[in-house]
Amino acid sequence: MSRHEDHGMMMTVGDVGPDAMGIDPLEFLTTFDYGDASELEDGRTLRQYNIVAVDREIEIAPGVFFPAWTYNDQVPGPTIRANEGDRLQIHFTNAGSHPHTIHFHGIHSSFMDGVPNIGRGMIYPGESFTYEFDARPFGCHLYHCHAIPLKRHIHKGLYGAFIINPDPEKHGELARKRHPDYQESEEWQEFVMVMNAFDTTFDDENEVYAVNTIAHHFMRHPIVVERDRPIRIYLVNVTEFDPINSFHIHANFLTTTTTVRRSNRRSGRSTPSCSARRSGGLSRCPSRDSTPASTCFMPISRSLPSWAGCRYSRSWNRGPEWLT
């Protein structure tokens, strides 16, 4: 049995520059794209985003380069964030060499689903299209290309996190902790972590595994947190070719709450598992009297089943009391 101190022997040799994936992985952790906001006639907020698909070679480990397909010249794509109920317009241009789409996990019309042969369907090289829908349901979601073959288009880098903040007027006072417009949220430290992997030999088996694209990056560039503030991690798993992946924090236990076929399961563990193309959230307190205080969540609402509108996104269908 290996010891924790032996983990360093498994690292890659050397380091890569901060722009190897299009954005510094440390910067990516806390970068949220709220788009260009304006007010609609009905008083709601309209948010507009510009996404361009571009072919680009990225460095995923020291000296290991990968011919990626990217959203906005980076892998993962930008973390799109909005408030529940906002009207979203995502202006998509395909400047790549293959047909692409953007498929958002959530609830919207089939015409805006970004799936081949449905609605607008494929966006071919040189073409543009605007996806438009309301931001719902709240939670941590995923967006990705849905062109065929699906696993190849996702694996090549066309994916990103999609976060919708809950509306406190609908979900109660605890929703303020998840909504950056409210002072209650300032206590929390938030990070986006996208678990991904790369098949560098194109044999449908991964050779390089990472969080936010660059292998072992956070071993050399640790994530610094404030001990007395709770942490919320928006976790997305887009590891193709592997049926399952796990998220492991040394010296901390996560209390995981999920909904599976309407029956709730709750467990305390340090390594929750997450199936491919799924997303969720983890929250934990680094110190609170040394008591593990963590919740794995992606709440939707009381009235929706856990699978509603989510093709692959894992959801935890709990009420507002689980927002923390």
Question: What does the model show?
Answer:
This protein is 6% helix and 35% strand. The protein has helices at residues 25-29, 150-155, 168-171, 217-220; strands at residues 36-39, 45-61, 64-71, 80-83, 87-94, 103-104, 128-134, 139-144, 159-165, 189-198, 208-211, 231-237, 244-246, 254-260, 263-269, 273-275, 278-284, 294-297. The chain has 324 residues and is mainly β. The radius of gyration is 19 Å and the shape is globular.
Q: Summary?
A:
The protein has 324 residues and is mainly beta. The chain contains four helices and 18 strands.
Q: Strand count, sense and closure of the main sheet?
A: 5 strands, mixed
Shape descriptor = globular
The termini sit apart by 36 Å
Strand content: 35-45%
Q: Helical proportion?
A: under 10%
Structural class by helix and strand composition: mainly beta
Overall radius of gyration? 19 Å
Q: List the total number of helices.
A: 4
Please state the average pLDDT score: 80
Overall number of strands: 18
Series of H and E elements: HEEEEEEEEHEHEEHEEEEEEE
What are the low-pLDDT stretches, counting only 5+ consecutive residues below 50? 255-271, 284-322
